[in-house]
């Protein structure tokens, strides 16, 4: 039985249970240099504790979608195709590289039990139904931010060509307050880290909501270009993201927004995405890319209103990957957990150059979540009327190309000295590590001397003495 037979759903040949257990559920895609293939080194950054947090029983954000994603990735055997990193928490110092000190102190101190003591702060920091106080909230923020920072370090060190953190992508958080289910902005922190060594970073957002937090953070600079594809009618959250938001000052024309209407379908979305991203990359010439892969732009999402299927969403990720630029992929929105996990598992396969059987593995934990079809690619389209006419999309593309016309050349950056690294350790921890390395060095030196004398004694002839 060949690997390809797993991909053939019309097969009639069956195998015994032992053979089935040891047969992969994926087929490697053979890429060659002549065909323009790209085989990146991929790393997967996760912390299993993130999925245990809970916003509240009626809140649409469900962190356990990350557990479903990890189970799918493991059941398909995709972990064999990547380097796996269980990440540490982001430190308070790392969070303060973007967020204000009084806001981070508030996140540290607030709990469901002492909320009544922080009545004024709750109003000041925009805490409410969208961003509730829940048990372990600060730890949760540290975990998902720490994973994005760890992923950015692997890109900087050249240990990964593509780094994945599906727990990240919380793009609405602002410097002084939370917004849209997002408490700290891991994307901004990862970009700040990448800017230490990368002159230009491109941020691409395909969440159904505008990536306002990231755009706002870099609205005045030409070193980061933000491109966001989202629904916009002036009322849909967060109410920003029209095509005339292009940046200010030095950052003018380095923010590009693609406002869409309800019900856009696969072909229209992918065609528009490729028509915009190709000139953006050509003109801006980024040396690193962060792609936010929010799953609420899928059809059938609890808070979404597009008609995208999983393969179309993944095609956007595949297209960005094809440029061969170091890339960090993060999660984001997505409020129908079974479809979120399907999407991010599929996009993991796209990034690792393998093709998955559309039938979910029988060994998958929580497989009942995916009934009745147990498929990786259910039909999610045609739920909403497509209000994006050809005329509207053509006119929008013309306007976007007009905005890009001002980018005559990629901005140059003078990089003389690499700033200090954003390490996920304190000074005391670093001192202990250095001391431990010194002790290990002394032990290694002693063992080398011991091995030297042993080898010399072995080389001596009978009756000879070694000085």
From TrEMBL:
Substrate binds at residues 130, 180, 335. It is an enzyme of class 3 (hydrolase). One of its GO terms (cellular component) is Set3 complex. It is found in: Nucleus. The active site is at residue 172. GO terms for molecular function: histone deacetylase activity, hydrolytic mechanism; metal ion binding. It catalyses: N(6)-acetyl-L-lysyl-[histone] + H2O = L-lysyl-[histone] + acetate. A divalent metal cation binds at residues 207, 209, 296. Keywords: Chromatin regulator, Hydrolase, Metal-binding, Nucleus, Transcription, Transcription regulation. The keyword Transcription regulation applies. InterPro entries: HDAC_I/II, HDACs, His_deacetylse_dom, His_deacetylse_dom_sf, Ureohydrolase_dom_sf. It comes from the Eukaryota. The keyword Metal-binding applies. PANTHER family: HISTONE DEACETYLASE 3, HISTONE DEACETYLASE HDAC1-RELATED. Belongs to the histone deacetylase family. HD Type 1 subfamily. This is Histone deacetylase. The lineage of its organism: Eukaryota, Fungi, Dikarya, Ascomycota, Saccharomycotina.
